[in-house]
Every structure is written in C-alpha cells, then in structure tokens.
Amino acid sequence: MPVPTSVSQLLEKQNVSYSVALRPDDSNVYSISDLPHEQHLREVGAARSLLLQDGEGRVQVIASADGLFDIHEANQLLGRDLQPTCNDELKGFLDKHQLTSVPALPKLGGLPTLVDQRLLDKQLVLLDSGADELLEIHQEDFALMVSGAIVGDITVSLDSLEQKLKTRGPDEEELLAAVKTFTAKRIKQRLEETLELPPLPETAQRIINLRVDPNADVGDLANIVEVDPSLAAQVVSWASSPYYSAPGKIRSIHDAIVRVLGFDMVLNLALGLALGKTMSIPKDGVHGATSYWKQAVYTAATVEGLVRVIPREHRPGFGMAYLSGLLHNFGWLVLAEVFPPQFNRICRCMEVNTHMPPHLAEFYILGVTREQIASWLMQLWGMPDEVIIALRHQNNSSPAEVEHGEYAKLVLIAQRLLQQHGIGQGPRQGIPDALFRELQLDRDRAQQAVEAVLESSEELDNIAQQLQA
C-alpha cells in the first residue's frame, strides 16, 4: 500500500523531505507474511501516534514503538487526566482519510502534541505513515516538525523490561515484593494468607484426586460433576453444542461423557470451569478486549485443533493441552482480585500500548505478571505440572528446555494465531518457525486448525456467553 495521499500532501505542505523506508526482504526467525505491522514498528524503533482525551479536549502523543508509553507519567507532565480515545471515535477519521492507523505526524489537525524524548535522540526518525509503509525523516527535519510540541521522557525501553524479566528472581520472592509494595497489609509468613485468595474449590479438589485414581471410571466423574448443578449444566450445554455435533439430545453428564466428549475431556473441562468460577470477572477491563470466557473457549478449542494435527507419535496429552488452553488467562482474574487499584492502571497502560504484549505492562507497574501469579497459585493448589508450566511459560517464544514445555508452546501458538484474527489480548505477533519445528507441527496445518475454529465461531460464542452469565 502506498503512502496515503493525505499524509504525503501534508508533508509537502510543510516542506518536509522524506523517503519511504524499505521493509526487510527476509527474516531468519519469522516468515515474511507472519511479521505484523505492529511488530515491525517495534523492531525498527519507529514512531507511532495515539490520541488521548479528557474534558479539556484531545492530545496527540508521538512515542517510540520500541518503548512502553507511560500514560500516568504523561498525565503528571501535562497536569491532565487523559484517557485513550475509543476506537469507534477514531474509525470515522481513519475511514475518511483511508488510513489503517493514526499517522505519526506531530500536531496532526492542529492538536497539542506530546513527543517522546527518545525520538529526538535518533539521527534518522522512522514514522508510521498510517499505512504499511514507514517514512524516513532526518532528525533536523523532525525537530522542526515538533517545534512547539511538549517533549517528555514518557517511554520505557521494552528491551530493558524484557531483560529484567529474564533475570528476575524466584516467583514467590517477587510476588511478596509486589504485595509489600502495593498493599498496606502486614506481610504475613505465608504468601497465600497475604493474598487472601480463595481455597481450591471442593469440586476441583475431588477432580484432581480422581485424576490420580487408577480405578476411576465414568460413574465417579459423573457423580462429582452432578453435585455442582451449575457445573453440570455447563458440561451438558458444552456437549449439546452444535460444535460437537452430538447425535440426539444430551440428557445427563453420563451421556456427555460416554457419547460426546469422553472421560478425559470432561474431567479437564470440569476442572477448568470449576477453577474459572472461583474468581469474579473484572468489570474494569481493557476497552474493546476479548472477554475472559470467550478468550478461554477459543484458545482451548484452538489448542485442541493443534494437537489433532500433530503426528500421533509426537502428540502431547490431549487433556492437559486442552486444560492449559482453557486456563491460560486465569492469572488475569487473580490480578484483578489481588491488586484492584493497580489493575485499573494496568488496563489503561494496555489500552495505550496496543503494540506490546500485556505482560510487559503488568511487570512495569507491579513487578510481576499474571503468568507468575497464576502458575504460583496452580502450584499451591496442587494442579498438574503440565498446566503449571503452560501458564508460566506461555509468553516465552524461546523457552529453555523444561519438562512439559510443549504445553506452553501450544498455548503460545494458539494465542498468536487467534490474535492475528483480533481475538485475545495484545498485538498481532509473528510465530517463530522454531516453535513449529519443536512441536513437529506444520505451519499450514496449524493455520487450517484455527480457521476451522473460527468457522465455528457462532457455536463457540454461545458457549462463552453461557459461561459469562
């Protein structure tokens, strides 16, 4: 796509010299078609633009895409209470000018502009053109463009955050530090007492015990699920969904196990649903983000599809993979429960940093991530190691070889495939070819698996809707 006409005309009117930056022709890590625009912006450190607003009006921010934009710092600098302009309000502007994003041109439409100091330190500045292309502008010309704008130290290097994530200490120490920093409560001897999280539900405990019982049968599982009317209704509803095309009417848990889902599937589904119901869904989430249960249902279904296309001799355990997908975002619920004031700030940070993975916002603000919190809690509850590893390492695209690491890789691939279709939290990101090789998973067949899930979106949406009720 060429530089948008409205952008080129504006630059010519300002007498700004520019050229179109060439996009790399190859990559040793990602397939070219799999390198999204947001990731490209970050890799080359280009400038991106976003609009904020409050009761006084709108402000444009020009920030480096290889940094986390700190909206809290910006508000302190400006003495404002700015919030992200919602996508619905931006759509008319973008459609009118045939743009896919807000061009990183300072003082766009005469708006007051806040500029990232890090951009002024570059000899050659790359700007998001509002389309796929990037514009190259020399530092002297960029300095003239931003004359009269407010300049501030408003971003933190994403590379530095990721490096700190790699060199951090044990999870429990960091969780204690986060609690000590962000609550006024006395730090007690046991972390679980400090966090005041609910105990493992009785139903979930009975299911975990059943998992290790070699003599367990369909009747044992049905008896456990039937004790919880809400859980029983959800399992029957799941089995009755057109997604599974079950013949005849599903009349009982026994029917759901024997005729449709199978013992392993119902055992892990019931366990995931029981745990998911221990926490309330946060009301103050990220604007426009996929709901918790929709994300859980789609990820579990995608993981299910991926496992099926892996050669049988290399295939991970189906039940553990499905449960890992269903619970992959459980830490989001815990985060909202444990750190409510900071959860609000994290949500706002994510809304203005749509170009970066959400866990970096959590680490920047709290010093811990949802993955750390969730995996610690699963360990405390005695959940299977496969799930603990999957939740803990799901955002690590090149994890060290750890036992059960294949489950984390499956969840990562499922999430990124769905993000490319606008489902989930965070930006579209490329998937390293090495991940597919390590799982013996063909990239094309993985794409076909997620497409099959999306073709069943109506059925999956109905399942998610019932869980949200």
Q: How many strands in all?
A: 10
The CATH architecture category of the largest domain equals: Orthogonal Bundle
Q: What's the helical proportion of residues?
A: 40-55%
Q: Beta-sheet strand percentage? A: 5-15%
Question: What does it look like?
Answer:
It contains 25 helices and 10 strands. The chain has 469 residues and is an alpha+beta fold. It folds into 2 domains: 152 residues, YbaK/aminoacyl-tRNA synthetase-associated domain (YbaK protein); 217 residues, Hypothetical protein af1432. The strands form 3 sheets. It has a 5-stranded mixed β-sheet. A 3-stranded antiparallel β-sheet has the order 1-8-7. A hairpin with a 2-residue loop joins β2 and β3. α12 runs parallel beside α13. The longest helix has 18 residues.
What structural keywords apply?
single chain; 469 residues; alpha+beta; YbaK protein; Hypothetical protein af1432; five-stranded mixed sheet; 25 helices; 10 strands
Outline the secondary-structure elements.
Elements: H1 5-13, E1 19-21, H2 37-44, E2 47-54, E3 57-64, E4 67-69, H3 71-78, E5 83-84, H4 87-96, E6 113-116, H5 117-120, E7 124-128, E8 134-138, H6 139-145, E9 150-152, E10 155-157, H7 158-166, H8 171-182, H9 191-195, H10 202-211, H11 218-227, H12 229-240, H13 253-261, H14 263-276, H15 292-309, H16 318-327, H17 330-338, H18 340-352, H19 358-366, H20 370-380, H21 385-393, H22 405-419, H23 433-438, H24 443-455, H25 457-468
Parallel strand pairs: 3-6, 6-9
Antiparallel strand pairs: 1-8, 2-3, 2-5, 4-10, 7-8
